[in-house]
Design a protein that fits this description.
The complex is a heterodimer. In chain A, 34% of the residues lie in helices and 26% in strands. In chain A, a hairpin with a 2-residue loop joins strand 12 and strand 13. By secondary structure, chain A is of the alpha+beta class. Chain B is an alpha+beta fold. The chains are: A alpha+beta, B alpha+beta. Bound molecules: flavin-adenine dinucleotide and FE2/S2 (inorganic) cluster (2 copies). The site of one FE2/S2 (inorganic) cluster has 12 residues of chain B, from loops.
Chain lengths: 274, 174
């Protein structure tokens, strides 16, 4: 349970980090809050040649509102966003979901962008970013590009990021006058979700995003369904997610959770909308 | 900043419980091992080494930190606090530690150092916590002995005692 040897660089600017990535490619890896990556290093699931620590880059430690979006920099820790005084007003869904991400003791170190970079299928922040149609700001030494969250996550812990790119920030659109609901089922609060559901209700209809079942967060949009039509839609979604069985839950249990927790969060969101 | 080479030991200077200390570490050395083997501060325990059990919890610049998910070279210039820094004198327990003792909030003591650090940091921020806040905080720790209830009781008792103290006495606890 000790990491294999690697070189270490503490970058003092984003440019410095990007220079290292440009030179070393896949041999170099970004170290952010370390709450996922250090465990992988300890278990030797990852053996990079070089770690680039980005946590002392002051310019990345910012939460800003820019053109209707909340832009969260790569060095912003989860605890900082959770403690941001405007979070509830600007991003109610994130305010509901973030307390489910790990524990006080891991949110104090882990970053928002690191969680999205990691792209665990049960993680709450990738789910929230996809549900809100947010985007990921990628940057290499040569160029910057923005990718929609849904296109960024390409599979279980697989993403559209190229080796020489880092996530500079992620942005969550601010959408007023919508209703939100979030719930998840895990063995223990703070554990990864067996099923996590986020609902957004607006005058246009219902959006349900589900994590923990497929290999990435999945979203469905329905125009104002209710009663048995909603049950049918939830049932179809539950089967389309192609749940698998693992040590935590059977596929059937997961489908049942999608139907029931899905319905519960939609009702929560409807109530919060009206 | 320069690259720290994997095969060499590098000097790491930091503050440990208010005292300047330094030691040498290769980049891959974890803060847990660095504290215990290089610095000789064995109060911080090591359980799972992947961030789950909480035994290794310390604070770095005031942030609750799993020492097993932190590299020694990352704490250069930081303010690190460990369980050794909680008591005001070698023969005196802090208010929180004394409450643990009274309430049988530890048996084998393996989890205790980490839990004390979490509670100490938390009670500074939330001086009058509700029971469910304490339980939520404790979800970041595993204790195989106590069943947690005595720990919750000790935490609430310590919070009440700390809150009833004069500010001057409270700051002495720091
Ligand atoms: C006990 C425990 C419980 C947890 N429970 C949950 C949970 O319930 N839900 C949940 O979502 N998470 C959970 N986590 C994980 C936690 O949220 C992590 O903080 C998060 O997954 C990764 O963020 P990080 O900043 O720690 O990134 P790191 O661990 O440092 O990095 C993770 C990965 O992302 C890459 N990376 C990080 N930042 C960037 C960047 N800016 N650009 C490019 N690549 C980057 C790294 O190279 C690495 O591959 C838990 C962790 C622990 C220890
Ligand atoms: S040893 Fe660090 S959390 Fe278990
Ligand atoms: S007292 Fe033994 S593990 Fe907690």
């Amino acid at each position: 349970m000790k990491p294999a040897a690697f070189d270490y660089v503490r970058a003092s600017s984003a440019e410095e980090a990007l220079e290292v990535l440009a030179k070393e490619g896949a041999d170099a890896r970004i170290l952010a809050g370390g709450q996922s990556f250090m465990a992988m290093l300890n278990m030797r699931l990852a053996r990079p040649k070089l770690l680039v620590d980005i946590m002392r880059i002051g310019s990345l430690d910012r939460i800003e509102e820019i053109e209707g979006e909340i832009v969260v920099g790569a060095a912003v820790r989860q605890a900082k966003l959770l403690g941001w005084d405007k979070l509830k007003a600007k991003l109610p869904l994130v305010a509901l979901a973030l307390p489910w991400t790990g524990h006080v003791q891991t949110r104090s170190r882990g970053t928002i962008c690191g969680s999205i970079a990691h792209a665990d299928p049960s993680a709450e922040m990738p789910l929230s970013l996809v549900a809100l149609s947010g985007s990921v700001h990628l940057r290499s030494l040569k160029k910057r590009r923005r990718v929609r969250a849904a296109d960024y996550i390409t599979g279980m812990m697989n993403t559209a990021r190229a080796d020489e790119e880092m996530i500079e920030a992620v942005s969550f659109p601010v959408v007023a006058e919508h209703g939100y609901g979030f719930r998840e089922i895990a063995r223990r609060h703070g554990d990864f979700a067996i099923v996590a559901c986020a609902a957004i209700v607006s005058s246009k209809g219902i959006r349900l995003a589900v994590g923990g079942v497929a290999d990435r967060p999945e979203v469905r949009d329905w125009p104002g369904l209710s009663g048995s039509a909603l049950d049918d839609a939830l049932n179809r979604f539950a089967y389309e997610l192609d749940a698998r069985q693992d040590v935590h839950a059977t596929a059937r249990y997961r489908r049942e959770l999608v139907r029931r927790v899905g319905r519960a969060v939609i009702e929560e969101a409807v109530q919060c909308h009206s | 900043m320069p690259l720290l080479n994997s095969s060499q030991r590098h000097r790491v200077g930091f503050s440990l419980n208010g005292h300047s200390v330094e030691g040498d570490a290769e980049p891959r050395v974890l803060l847990t091992d660095f504290l215990r083997h290089e610095i000789g501060a064995t109060g911080t325990h090591v359980g799972c080494e992947h961030g789950v059990c909480g035994a290794c919890t310390v604070t770095v610049d005031g942030m609750l930190t799993r020492a097993c998910l932190t590299l020694a070279v990352q704490i250069e210039g930081c303010d690190v606090r460990t369980v050794e820094g909680l008591a005001t004198a070698p023969d005196r327990l802090s208010i929180l530690q004394a409450a643990f003792r009274r309430n049988h909030a530890l048996q084998c003591g393996f989890c205790t150092a980490g839990i004390l650090m979490s509670l100490d940091a938390f009670l500074r921020e939330v001086p009058t916590p509700a029971e469910d806040q304490i339980r939520d905080l404790l979800s970041g720790h595993l204790c195989r002995c106590t069943g947690y209830t005595p720990i919750v009781r000790a935490a609430l008792e310590a919070a009440a005692e700390l809150a009833s103290r004069q500010p001057a006495v409270q700051s002495h606890h720091v």
